[in-house]
Design brief:
2 copies of one chain form a homodimer. The first copy, chain A, is of the alpha+beta class. Chain A has helices spanning about 20-30, 45-65, 75-85, 85-90, 110-120, 165-185, 230-235, 240-245, 255-260, 285-290, 315-325, 355-370, 380-390, 400-405, 425-434, and strands spanning about 30-35, 40, 65-70, 75, 95, 105, 130-140, 155-165, 190-195, 205-215, 220-225, 250-255, 270-285, 295, 305, 305-315, 325-330, 330, 345, 375, 395-400, 410-415, 420-425. At the A-B interface, β1, β2, α2, β3 and β4 of A face β1, β2, α2, β3 and β4 of B.
């Protein structure tokens, strides 16, 4: 993509209400613009990252056997009356009436809707187990939206729902999602701490939250240092034994930790850090299948209420969490897995036709090799171009300038390390195409 | 995908309010389920088609130089007060207040929001021309939603917005979108008739609607038969000359046609058919840039209000239009470009381990070759499997049964023609991988 034809409004100033670094950097790097309190438009660069995060989440859901569908954003209040949650849900639910005075709402979650869909379609044990998911915009009317997309009102969530015949099946579905979550966060370059959670308003018997460690997190965590020692490789290849290892280690949110009479972790092994909640999984059994009258026939002709679980990932929030975990003073440092472009190609002298024709050729070769590159072909000062590339945080910068070209070289800079190398054009292309 | 692990609730009966064939078939084929009046959940098979349509639309937008972003669904009423449209827009706009009593709405379109974003980011002629688009869910509170996703309330729309320095530039941006639309509809296997349209509430000077010919269309069209003679190949390679050719031919909606004193087309060349509106493009000049105070500096230091256009495609409605245009008594016939899977693989005897192991092997080889296949591995009667495959309309059916295997063959059926052929497994795989 040529920057001269793109829409990338980077800025130097950020509004006073942008307190945390990810919020500031998302505005500065032209990823998002606020359009109302807690509501953001995703500018082209931000959308590319969002889609990449979404794709990692999707791939791991699919690997876990979950099937993707898409439920609408607007729901009928009647659905929520069936489960009894309509009156129980607080002012975070955005409620309205349509032109016929029917009560509707902007979905904050989808337990009721998926239960109704599954109930009306599935009658036999042969159609279970099944886990369905969707990645859709949700709305929660936070009283005080803040921290940019981390606690916005309109946000993108992946929510999955499992249906099993018995508790043993539910446990397997829950573990499959637990594994998918560990892999997902590891692929996104994040260290996630699974914390045993109280089940709260969704109800049920078993629940874990997944927190990303960051000083700006809203939760205070207390956990065994051994959790940090689980390697990224182990998490990428997570299985049931990884879950057993992790859930065998102490990890609590402050409120729950305070209730523990005697902490099983010695003081020198107890870590206290702040965390950002990016995932939450629940096994809640028959709460919705019973209240909403969903039954399936068993193999011996009986009828049971399926055992259900729900599994959420804050897709848009993850973008903030990744930036909190990976940035420096100059800007964002994207992990390769979610970088909006792999390479930022800088033409140092757009007014010099030799440099421009060399840079154009490099750009064409990168495109031919299938390497996503953002090409700064604008007639601007080199310093401004460097600052833009640093703030938007692409993994590699490839710099084409007149001095280098005289020597037959270009400069390759790795954003994360700051390391710079002079290479022939061919070597640089080979490195980036690898 | 193995059907035994998928979620494909096909049905025989459809509700009485499903009057048109696409609505009936979308329900029967398990593509969607209604969750409230005019609001649908996209089941896994339907979502796959929706994403493929979306991708064709996206690719043609990108080819036309438009840049993708994503605006939120919820908008502030204040934005619409800036343009003066808040009070003008009727009861189709879904309005509500948030918990702080701020007036909000579910966006039916995005002229105001994109104008505000562009206004706040762009100050110089050097950043123009630019066309931005997004593909996002919209809500229009139809008084009587009907025809399934064709006139639903929550629907997926691609809307693009162009910004130019002068009218000449706007004309170029308009033509680039006109070309993108012709190509998009041709790639989707649809014959689209561009109709000169009155500009209506969006305002402006130039507008065209794109209609798909179908007996169940809501519009009555009068047009020169020569429009039907433009070949698919010409539309796939459309350019400015194609536009000149098409817009030089008479085409009007009934209401406008009635106003024409003397129709320029002779009676034997005048076609009257019904059409489904799937696209609408507008050049409206400075309507929003002036009312919302957007100016950019020109190269000679002056200030101008950019010339704007907006360009919509009904992405979810297109699914209905494609089915209206491509089905038979047995079900849907998907064009290859949007088929949810390319091949339906049928195991005729899931209770026979020889047949099953042969079918499993074919499925594995299709997967290895990157051919999307839906594998009916369920223990059901062959007749039910054929009926399911016919109604869901995958382009090819590959049938593995005991009699064929004795002869060393499988059966390949083309859904569109009904043609069946016995082939060796290798030949069938080679045909499908082509």
């Amino acid at each position: 993509m040529r920057l001269s034809r793109y829409f990338l409004p980077v800025t130097k100033e950020t509004p006073a209400d942008a307190q945390i670094v990810s919020h500031k950097l998302m505005l500065r790097a032209g990823l998002v613009r606020q359009t109302a309190a807690g509501i953001y438009a995703w500018l082209p660069l931000g959308l590319r990252v969002l889609r990449k995060i979404e794709q990692v989440v999707r791939e791991e859901q699919n690997k876990a056997g979950a099937v993707e569908m898409l439920m609408p954003t607007v729901q009928s209040a009647d659905l929520w009356r069936q489960s009894g949650r309509y009156d129980a849900y607080g002012p975070e639910m955005l409620r309205f009436t349509d032109r016929h005075e029917r009560e509707m709402l902007f979905g904050p979650t989808n337990e009721e809707m998926i239960t109704a869909i599954f109930r009306d379609a599935v009658k036999s044990y042969r159609d279970l187990p099944r886990t369905l998911y969707h990645i859709q915009w949700k709305f929660r009317d936070e009283v005080r939206p803040r921290f940019g997309v981390m606690r916005g009102r309109e946000f993108l969530m992946k929510d999955a729902y499992s249906f099993d015949l018995d508790e043993e099946g539910l446990k397997r579905s829950y573990e499959a999602m637990f594994v998918a979550y560990l892999r997902t966060f590891a692929r996104l370059g994040l260290q996630a701490v699974p914390v045993r959670a109280p089940t709260g308003p969704i109800g049920g018997t078993l629940s874990h939250e997944f927190h990303i460690l960051a000083d700006t997190g809203e939760s205070a965590l207390f956990y065994d240092a051994a959790i940090e020692e689980v390697s990224r490789e182990e998490l990428l290849g997570a299985d049931a034994s990884t879950i057993a290892r992790l859930t065998g280690l102490y990890a609590m949110e402050e409120e729950e930790h305070a209730k523990v009479a005697e902490c099983p972790v010695s003081a020198d092994r107890l870590r206290t850090r702040r965390g950002i909640e990016v995932g939450h999984i629940f096994a809640f059994g028959t709460k919705y299948s019973a209240s909403m009258g969903m039954t399936v026939q068993t193999s011996d002709g009986g009828q049971v209420h399926p055992q259900m679980g729900s599994y959420g990932v804050g897709v848009s929030r993850l973008m903030g969490a990744i930036i909190e975990a990976s940035h420096d003073d100059a800007g964002i440092i994207w992990p390769e897995s979610v970088a909006p472009f792999r390479v930022g190609l800088i033409n140092m002298r757009a007014d010099d036709c030799n440099v421009t024709s060399a840079a154009d050729e490099v750009y064409a070769k990168l495109s031919d090799a299938g390497v996503d590159a953002l090409y700064d072909d604008r007639d601007e000062r080199g310093g401004a171009k460097f600052a833009t590339m640093d703030v938007i945080g692409l993994p590699w910068q490839l710099i084409v300038g007149p001095k280098g070209l005289e020597k037959g070289v270009v400069e390759l800079k790795q954003r994360a390390t700051g390391e710079r190398q002079e290479l022939s054009i061919e070597s640089a292309l080979a490195r980036l195409s690898a």
